[in-house]
Amino acid sequence: MELTAAPPLEEGCDVPHLGRLAHARRAAAQAEFALWAAMLDHRDEARAALQATEPSRHRAATGLGSTVLDIAQTLAVSELSVEVILSTADTVRRSLPALWRAFSLGAVDAHRVRTIHSVLTTAHTDTLIGLLDTRAVDYAATHTPAELRAWLKRLRARIEPDQSTAEAETARDRRRVEIVHVDHAMSWINAYVPTTIAVAIEKRLATAARALPEIDPDTGELDQRTQDQKRADLICHWLTSCEGTQTTVRAEVAISIDARDLIGLTDGPGAVRGHGIPVPAAWVRELATQETTLFRRLVLDASGQVLDTTSLGYQPPGALRQALQWRDGRCRVAGCQVPADRTDLDHHHPWERGGPTNAGNLRSLCRRHHRMKSHGHLTAHHYRPPDTYRERVLDQTSVEIDLVHLQAA
């Protein structure tokens, strides 16, 4: 892969100030590469000199340790930080040459290189390693670090399903609750639980907090708590005021999965709607057998897009709204991570000017970016394409089933 021009993210930087920002971003990444390369060169030269003059392997290793110390003191960082950078740079330069070149050109920065390297250290197949040095490099150059991390998780779960499932099972065995007491008479309650459960808890808390009355029925006073404060109070009430063994409240956890993965022909992961977090196929199959699980089918075109549905009114019907949430995944502004089920459906061409209420004219925008659009502050280059949950890295056609599990909260 040759990267000789500016990364695609710089397209649309027709405003001079944005062009300078894009150039500065590239220069900053190239400066990080120059530092890493200089550290490698200094270490390699010192190693060669020691191997030529020190017959004892132990003395040579000790001398190399002093080289790390010299680098650390020069850069005013810890020796461990130097060792981590040298190890990462060594591995990337040797195993992912295209990523190393993209780093040298400033197409990706050190943070993205570390993110891809972290997946390389767990890779078991040449297929995944090859994709990390091709598709992952292209993706990293045009997406935020958070998007890159989520994409890499889905990619690995698709390419190495057995290893990913085994790791998920091991992690599930470590589920626990931790209570940490901190300053100012406050404490943290942390729960390490499966993502499907955590999403259900999050949805139930958000729904219950929004449903609280603005006026306290007992005192008649205005409830001035923030949404965060309301959620904290609710979870404390639930944990201290009921048995926790039965509940009549259920929260919806929506998961997208390829039909062949669901029936066991292949073992690609499902993906939690709005988050893109991969879930092992075995876990999705387990959910599918429960009586509270509903199945919803979306009709997709050949490229995986939701087929158009049109309504004559301003408000889209429920089926179209749900289809668009699946299509978009998140707010359609590039880099925004607000899940689609917490966004507004915006008419690209205003409805009052004849814009239709159909899939082609609607897109999910969070309230903040919806306001920007309404006031004319968003242009075409601010938007990203609809979300993709499956990584089409192998030659295959795809039929998707959408599974909705009603998780008891």
UniProtKB/TrEMBL annotation:
Family annotation (SMART domains): HNHc
Domain called HNH nuclease: residue spans: 319-371
GO molecular function: endonuclease activity; nucleic acid binding; zinc ion binding
CDD domains attached to this UniProt entry: HNHc
Top-level division of the source organism's lineage: Bacteria
Pfam families xrefs: DUF222 (PF02720), HNH (PF01844)
Family stated for the protein in its record: Belongs to the Rv1128c/1148c/1588c/1702c/1945/3466 family.
Name of protein: HNH nuclease domain-containing protein
Species name: Auraticoccus monumenti
Classification of source organism: Bacteria, Bacillati, Actinomycetota, Actinomycetes, Propionibacteriales
